[in-house]
Specification:
By secondary structure, the chain is of the alpha+beta class. The chain has 2 domains: 96 residues, no CATH class; 135 residues, Immunoglobulin-like (Sandwich), CATH 2.60.40. Helix content is 41%, strand content 33%. The chain contains 3 helices and 9 strands, in the order ααβββββαββββ. Strands 3, 4, 6, 7, 8 and 9 form a 6-stranded antiparallel β-sheet that branches. The chain has a 3-stranded antiparallel β-sheet with strand order 1-2-5, with no helix packed on it. A hairpin with a 2-residue loop joins β7 and β8. The longest helix is centred in the first third of the chain and has 50 residues. The radius of gyration is 34 Å and the shape is rod-shaped.
């Protein structure tokens, strides 16, 4: 699964590469250009002095050679500038791509809409919602539930149940009423209403976005008794995270 990243991570990475290139490339190219200029200039002076006999011709040859060298330096400078611009443009394109993914991708999460507690039932409605701007594909939910004294551990599913939704369009929720069968023992229900145990629901959502990247969401909630016929749903301190 892909781990969580900041929406600006692509942009920051591009800026880092750009700064590294800006810090190293000018020094490197300046050194190469300086050495080349000195070497070529020395060669021109040597040829003009020893191989060109007439003084006027020697001056003309030297002037033309230095003009050619200057033109070559200008061309090299343009190549360096264009290369640096290409690096900056590629970094900007990558940052734009990452920002587009985070702005348009699917974001799926779970919540407990209600707990149906009575003398002959203890059921709940699990709500899976996509709050993103594009569909979630291959969506699966693995979850477990039960009465516990302590919060569950992420990834621990003693009574695993699986729900395959497949495709979940954007801004749509999928309700799943879970019937707690067989019914909990009367002793468990009594402990629940005496607030010695809580009723927990926890699990994991996996899905793929339209950019062909995999994501996950862990969720964990619990229901606490507030009276003989009233319950309150709260998120657990741990076990709620997403990529």
């Amino acid at each position: 699964m892909k781990q969580v990243e900041s929406p600006d991570s692509g942009k920051q990475e591009g800026e880092k590469q750009k700064q590294e290139w800006q810090g190293i490339a000018p020094i490197t190219w300046f050194g190469v250009a300086s050495i080349s200029f000195i070497a070529f200039g020395s060669l021109i002076v040597f040829v003009a002095h020893y191989y060109v006999n007439e003084h006027s011709v020697s001056i003309t040859f030297g002037a033309q050679a230095f003009f050619s060298l200057f033109a070559a330096i200008v061309v090299v400078a343009q190549v360096i500038i264009y290369h640096r611009q290409a690096i900056a443009l590629n970094a900007q394109i990558e940052a734009t791509r990452q920002n587009t993914i985070y702005a348009q991708r699917a974001y799926c999460y779970a919540k407990i809409r209600e707990v149906i507690a009575s003398d002959d039932s203890f059921d709940f409605t699990l709500l899976i919602e996509n709050s993103g701007n594009s569909p979630a594909n291959d969506l699966e939910v693995s979850y477990s539930f039960g009465f516990r004294e302590t919060e569950p551990t992420k990834g621990d599913f003693p009574q695993l149940r699986q729900l395959r939704i497949g495709l979940l369009p954007p801004h749509i929720h999928y309700p799943e009423t879970v019937y707690n069968r067989p019914m909990p023992a009367p002793e468990q229900v009594r402990l629940y209403y005496s607030r010695k145990v809580n009723f927990y629901v926890w699990g994991r959502i996996t899905y793929r976005d339209v950019f062909n990247q995999d994501w996950f969401t862990y969720f964990a909630f619990y229901s606490i008794a507030r009276g003989p016929d009233k319950t309150e749903i709260r998120p657990c301190l741990e076990g709620n995270e997403a990529s």
